[in-house]
Amino acid sequence: MATAMTPDRICFASDNYAGTCPEAWAALAAANAGHAIAYGDDRHTAAACTAISELFGCACDVYFVFNGTAANALALASLCQSYHSVICPDSAHVETDECGAPEFFSNGSKLLCARSLHGKVLPESVAELATRRSDIHFPKPRVLSITQSTEAGTVYTPDEVQALHAVAVRHGLKLHMDGARFANAVASLGCHPADITWRAGVDVLCFGGTKQGLPVGEAVVFFDRGLSEDFAWRCKQAGQLASKMRFLAAPWPALLDGAWLRHAGNANACAARLGTALAKTPGVELLHPVEANAVFARLPAALSAGLRARGWRFYDFLGGGGARFVCGWDCRQEWVDELVGDLRDLAAGA
Ligand SMILES: *Cc1c(COP(=O)(O)O)cnc(C)c1O
């Protein structure tokens, strides 16, 4: 297990820079023994579907794919006809980071960007987009897509998801959740996973595994099982059907047996520690509340350059001095403290 006291100084750049968690690694080793039926008809895949169904406390249809872009794009495609549109926050991964995959796999469904605040879509903006046009010259709104936890490191409460569901229902929209960091949201809220999904009206969840400690793989969870019709064919056509499916599926029961929330809670705690320290650093301003495993802050250029010169890596794609630090499942408070120590040195002009 990655318990090094000295951090790789790239460890805050992204939560998919982290390795595989020991629970998943052990499950993979166990699943590696002997032969198993291919293409998902094996006992490991059955056990993973059962584990996810039991976690949520409901019957649901579950599919395993290689990555989050495919999970989102194929899930959205299954909700849309080509002439439909998907309302999402302007900061959504589906809009900004998937190279048009949702549009491609849906054969042209258009994404409509709603205004967001701290990564959360504004209900009034959803309503405005859903009602702006109803003529046949404009794609018909069909889905609301939200991200939990958000791209800004914030979390929707169960009430907020329910309120968005109410807006969605009012306007005939299905509700899709991009849960690449779903574990961080559940750990942050301390709620039952059902409270922010099917009980709050979510129809389809893309349940992230990769950022939570799996080597690869996400689960697409259909709470409205009618929407999963022919989804297996969609996965196969998109090149997302793993022939040795056991290796995508086997880590899930091990991860969901407590490890997912332990790791996500640890990552969240490290981010909170870093957020608190950054907020106290002269010249630094937090850009979003720190509610999950990411910290967004505006850093003076000299501070940012100084951290880089000391080997630290972090994203500054936000422009204007905006920086993103993300804590992975394996993050350690000592690593945070080392980064913070360098920050303090630099801020003091050392
Ligand atoms: C990481 C991430 C994904 C998945 O991205 P892939 O690189 O395709 O696995 C999806 N949504 C969000 C919000 C993410 O951060």
Describe this structure in words.
- Helix 1 (22-31) runs antiparallel to helix 11 and helix 12 crosses helix 13.
- With 350 residues, the chain is α/β, with parallel strands linked by helices.
- It has 2 domains: 7-19 and 258-349, Aspartate Aminotransferase, domain 1, CATH 3.90.1150; 22-256, Type I PLP-dependent aspartate aminotransferase-like (Major domain) (Aspartate Aminotransferase, domain 2, 3-Layer(aba) Sandwich).
- Strands 1-9-8-7-6-2-3 form a 7-stranded mixed β-sheet, sandwiched between helices. It has a 3-stranded antiparallel β-sheet with strand order 10-11-12.
- The relative contact order is 0.17.
- 40% of the residues lie in helices and 16% in strands.
- The model has no long low-confidence stretch (mean pLDDT 96).
- The chain contains 13 helices and 12 strands.
- Bound molecules: pyridoxal-5'-phosphate.
- The site of pyridoxal-5'-phosphate (PLP) has 10 residues, from helix 3.
Mean pLDDT: 96
The DSSP helix count reads 13
| Radius of gyration over all CA atoms, rounded | 20 Å
Please identify the structural class as seen in this structure.
alpha/beta
Q: How many DSSP-defined strands?
A: 12
- Amount of helix: 40-55%
The CATH topology of the largest domain is what?
Aspartate Aminotransferase, domain 2
Shape: globular
CATH superfamily of the largest domain: Type I PLP-dependent aspartate aminotransferase-like (Major domain)
Under the CATH scheme, which architecture of the largest domain would be assigned? 3-Layer(aba) Sandwich
The helix-strand sequence is: HHEHEHHEEEHEHEHEEHHHEEHEH
What characterizes the major β-sheet? Answer: 7 strands, mixed
- Spatial order of the strands forming the largest sheet: 1-9-8-7-6-2-3
* Beta-strand content estimate: 15-25%
